[in-house]
Structures are given as structure tokens and as C-alpha cells.
Design goal:
This protein is an alpha/beta fold. It folds into two domains: 101 residues, Udp-n-acetylmuramoylalanyl-d-glutamate--2,6- Diaminopimelate Ligase, Chain: A, domain 1 (3-Layer(aba) Sandwich); 118 residues, Udp-n-acetylmuramoylalanyl-d-glutamate--2,6- Diaminopimelate Ligase, Chain: A, domain 1 (3-Layer(aba) Sandwich). 37% of the residues lie in helices and 24% in strands. The strands form three sheets. A six-stranded mixed beta sheet has the order 7-8-10-11-12-9, sandwiched between helices. Strands 2-6-5-4-13 form a five-stranded mixed beta sheet, sandwiched between helices. The longest helix has 14 residues. It is elongated and about 55 Å long. The mean pLDDT is 97.
Length: 252
């Protein structure tokens, strides 16, 4: 069964509330392909590897978290950007991308989906006074050591995380997928025992050590694999479409 591209995009925009969220890139349809969609291929980033896999899978639409046209980037269509866009246009494939709307969503959002992977009960936002902070706070069903929690992360993510170990048992957790390591100060203020993000910065080590809080960097790509899958599944159910998630490995 096929659905009009315009209908699918309209539903995705509505479901994610993307028009209400200020972002660093355009959210929604970034490249227009054929007018009917039967097969969606989703992935974290619209890399050349994902586009080539989507062509091989005969996708009508590629759905990603990290798309194109970021603020401040060179607007010229040359080099890597030219090759990526040429692939989409040559094969008449649409590109649908959602950044912050996919981090924030209460059902299919990256942060909520990561909590489900790690068996964390969501309690609320990391910083209730600042809606620009997209992280969450939650609790574990029973306390565990930071090393035990890191093992849980490794099993779920399929990769060994970076762990900075504090002195407390882990009961409450703060987290923000991707490049949210800068929110560790909000995590300290929230009184969590461990903060988790995708990446780490040099100063993250000192913040964790000097505030005696455990910290885990589990990978930007690894922590953001689940939201786009959930959104793809939602759209596939909604319109009786085929959906295939393709994970292009990324160690970062």
C-alpha cells in the first residue's frame, strides 16, 4: 500500500510538533523525491553509507535524526554534500529529518526510548525551568553500583562505554542522548547519582570528579539509534508501509 508523500510528512510534522520547536536545522522534508511512499528506510544519520543502503533496499523515503542544512555550514553544493544530494535526486528518494523534535518527543523521542532500553523509569525533565535542556531524570527499580549500570549500558548499546565512577550507589539517573555532555551541571543540580550522555568533553571529567557524580559516555550514534526506529515504526503502522532500520556503525 502506498501513501502520498505529502500526507506522510504532514503526519510526521504533526506527531512530533516540529513547527513549535526552534532548532539548528530545518525539520521535516529536506529533499523531495517521488510522490508516493511504500518503503521507508530509517537510520541515525543521512550519510553516504545509509543512502547507498537505501538505494539497494529500494526505499522511497529515508528517515533520519541527523539530516542536512545545519546553521552555519557552507551552503555550496560541492564535495560530500553534492554526492549525497545527487544520490537522493538520481534515485528519486525523499529525505525526512527530525533533530530536536525527535529528542524531545514523549513517546518516540531518543531520550524516552533510551530509558526503555536501560530500564529507567522517567520522572521528568532534567531542568524543569529551562525547556531548552532536552534531557530527562529517572530512577532505577533498585540501586546498583556505577560499574553494574555501565555493564547494563554496554549490553544494551553493544559497545563499552566510558565510565567515570563516583562514590554513590546509583538510584537516580539523568541523561541526554547525543552531544548532551554539557548538561552535567544541570544533572548535579538535579541531585542524580549518575549522568549519561553520548559524548564527553575534557571538562566533563572534572565536573564529575569534583561533584562526586558518576558519568557515562555511551556514544552519540549509539544512544540515538532508537528514536528514529520508533518513529519509523509509528509511520509504518499508521499508513501500512514497509519500514527497515539500517544501522551504519559509528564509533563516536
Amino acid at each position: 500500500m502506498a501513501v502520498a508523500l505529502s500526507t506522510l510528512v504532514e503526519e510526521a510534522d504533526r506527531y512530533l510538533g516540529s513547527s513549535r520547536i526552534a532548532d539548528y536545522c530545518p525539520n521535516g522534508l529536506q529533499v523531495e523525491g517521488r510522490p508516493q511512499v511504500m518503503r521507508i528506510v530509517s537510520g541515525v544519520t543521512a550519510s553516504q553509507a545509509l543512502l547507498d543502503a537505501a538505494v539497494e533496499a529500494k526505499a522511497d523515503l529515508v528517515l533520519v535524526h541527523h539530516g542536512y542544512f545545519w546553521k552555519g555550514e557552507n551552503p555550496c553544493i560541492t564535495g560530500m554534500k553534492q554526492r549525497r544530494l545527487k544520490t537522493l535526486l538520481k534515485h528519486d528518494i525523499s529525505l525526512l529529518a527530525y533533530h530536536l523534535p525527535l529528542d524531545l518527543h514523549p513517546e518516540v523521542g531518543n531520550n524516552v526510548q533510551l530509558a526503555r532500553q536501560l530500564d529507567i523509569t522517567v520522572e521528568g525533565p532534567l531542568d524543569p525551568e529551562n525547556p531548552k535542556v532536552v534531557g530527562l531524570v529517572g530512577s532505577l527499580s533498585e540501586p546498583m553500583t556505577a560499574r553494574d549500570f555501565a555493564r547494563r549500558v554496554q549490553e544494551a548499546m553493544g559497545r563499552e562505554p566510558l565510565l567515570i565512577e563516583g562514590s554513590e550507589m546509583i538510584r537516580r539517573v539523568g541523561w541526554c542522548t547525543g552531544g548532551g555532555q554539557g548538561y552535567i551541571d544541570q544533572a548535579v543540580q538535579a541531585g542524580v547519582d549518575l549522568y549519561l550522555s553520548g559524548e564527553a568533553s575534557e571538562q566533563t571529567f572534572h565536573s564529575a570528579r569534583e561533584n562526586d557524580i558518576s558519568f557515562i559516555a555511551a556514544g552519540h550514534h549509539a544512544t540515538e539509534r532508537y528514536g528514529v526506529q520508533a518513529l519509523g515504526d509509528y509511520l509504518a503502522r499508521r499508513f501500512a508501509l514497509e519500514h527497515l532500520f539500517i544501522d551504519c556503525p559509528n564509533p563516536i
